[in-house]
């Protein structure tokens, strides 16, 4: 059973979930924009929200735009704080090397995912407790069928 969270919103284009069970609701552009190859632009959505305290909204790319046109979001996931009351804007990047991408107001350009978030209480200590992973990261487990090329170990 999906939990429903009330999110107050102003603006003309209320984000919509395309299917039951979708995690992201589509955000649309409030303006026309042309992105040349390699160009980025901060595109307004015309909407502002008030999340309940204890929630965050992430602005994330649409995979169809990414796969078909190379359109992504520079700062993905863009973080919308519960206290933010300004317009939600999307920092789009056209990664295609040759094709420009035209956005018309009303086009679906991104999706917004609303999630509960905890507030960390950072506790300074001299030494961290051990763990199975330890300090391994950045490919420390290697890749199937390939030897590690990292000379640091
Ligand atoms: O893709 C995004 C990311 C952020 N925001 C809005 C909501 C967020 O609450 C606010 C600030 O974002 P963030 O904290 O990422 O920006 P900052 O660069 O740290 O600026 P600030 O000093 O204003 O926090 O901008 C968007 O509209 N779209």
Automatic annotation (TrEMBL):
Kindly tell me the pathway this chain contributes to: Pyrimidine metabolism; dUMP biosynthesis; dUMP from dCTP (dUTP route): step 2/2
Q: Where does substrate bind?
A: 62-64, 75, 79-81
Q: Which reaction does this chain catalyze?
A: dUTP + H2O = dUMP + diphosphate + H(+)
Q: Does the keyword Ribonucleoprotein apply?
A: no
Q: What InterPro entries has UniProt attached to this entry? A: dUTPase, dUTPase-like, dUTPase-like_sf, dUTPase_trimeric
Q: Does the keyword Hydrolase apply?
A: yes
* Alphabetically ordered keywords of this record: Hydrolase, Magnesium, Metal-binding, Nucleotide metabolism
Query: Where does the dUTPase-like domain lie?
Result: 13-142
EC number(s) of the enzyme? Answer: 3.6.1.23
Q: Which cofactors does the annotated protein need, by name?
A: Mg(2+)
Its function, per the record, reads: This enzyme is involved in nucleotide metabolism: it produces dUMP, the immediate precursor of thymidine nucleotides and it decreases the intracellular concentration of dUTP so that uracil cannot be incorporated into DNA.
Q: Which family does it belong to?
A: Belongs to the dUTPase family.
Instruction: Name the HAMAP family on file.
Output: dUTPase_bact
Q: What is this protein called?
A: Deoxyuridine 5'-triphosphate nucleotidohydrolase
> Species name for this entry?
Naasia aerilata
Lineage of origin: Bacteria, Bacillati, Actinomycetota, Actinomycetes, Micrococcales
